[in-house]
Design goal:
The chain is α/β, with parallel strands linked by helices. It has twelve helices and 13 strands. The protein has two domains: 123 residues, Alpha-Beta Complex (Aspartate Aminotransferase, domain 1); 215 residues, Aspartate Aminotransferase, domain 2 (3-Layer(aba) Sandwich). The protein has a seven-stranded mixed beta sheet, sandwiched between helices. It has a four-stranded antiparallel beta sheet with strand order 9-10-13-12, with helices on one face. It is globular and about 55 Å long. Bound molecules: pyridoxal-5'-phosphate. The site of pyridoxal-5'-phosphate has 13 residues, from helix 4.
Length: 362
Amino acid sequence: MPPLPEVRPDLAALHGYHSPQVDVAVRLNTNEAPAPPPDAWSEALVKELAAVEWNRYPDRAAAELRAAIADHHGVRPDQVFAANGSNECIQALCLAYGGAGRSVALFEPTYPLHSHIARITGTGVLEGGRAPDLSLDPDAAIALIAAGAPALTFLCSPNNPTGMLEAPETVAAVADAAAAAGGLLVVDEAYGQFAPWSALALVDDDRPVVVTRTYSKTWSMAGARLGYLVGPSWLVAELEKVTLPYHLDAVKQIAGRLALRFDAEMRERVAALVEERGRLFAALTDLPVDVWPSAANFVLFRPRTRDGHDVWQGLLDRSVLVRDCSAWPGLDGCLRVTVGTADEDDRFLSALAATLDAGGQP
Ligand SMILES: *Cc1c(COP(=O)(O)O)cnc(C)c1O
């Protein structure tokens, strides 16, 4: 038999995305919304689906969806690029602006897909770090950008998995540094609606800054796989070159457009989650764990008395799934829990207390 085909050598060392999907009673590992979108949204969707011409390709430009998103943010439709999740936006950015001989800069620990997508598109990765308290030092970030001249710089604010928000001055200074180095700043705002401010105000045709958003978290639509970015119109035009034709199917174009009619309901769900986050945070501080303040719908914590991975397993044994970040660089022993319903969070908290007790004190 001839030898099996060999995968691209730069891919051979990579692993796929790992977040176990196991059947548990309480699933708090992927920052999904605990509640579905409003019934009125499903009803409107079903009604519009009846009129879809299934034998025809969908609108390749997703014009109605983009117009609705543009209207939602007070920008022009040519400043909006929609895709299959904000992950596909990031992929399109890396395909169009990254690639061989180019690099992205990012600051670990952060969302693992930024470096992963960069690598699968053949883009180099310049890894900056964070302070021991996991905050970003703007001067260190600016120095990395000035030295490495990355084609793209990623900030995630609020940052996943720390939950920490960057200050407006930090984002503005990093944007200036990225532009001065001939690059682009990408601000991932998957959790933007949970935060008190947004980098959307920086987006302008004269500034190389884009903001990515998703329907997966605040809009309660992870099942739809839809995200978008807002950025300069010249950039959006380039992204259209690297996207497969008709990549957005008819169903998600309608689903995303209709969702924006329920902005008030989304804000109510977000406000309720923010309140619940406060309760979860306070309850965690009563346990022997270190907790980071969060501006998102999850909380990062580190058990002080037991090994992080053992605690993750202890929770799983009690049918509670959280994200195990304990082996991530800079996050030794840390776990991340999504804010769920009050009932889910109570079940998590009692499972955590029981797990920590079962391990005994040191
Ligand atoms: C969840 C998440 C996303 C969402 O990606 P989608 O592809 O839109 O589901 C993007 N960025 C960050 C930081 C996230 O945590």
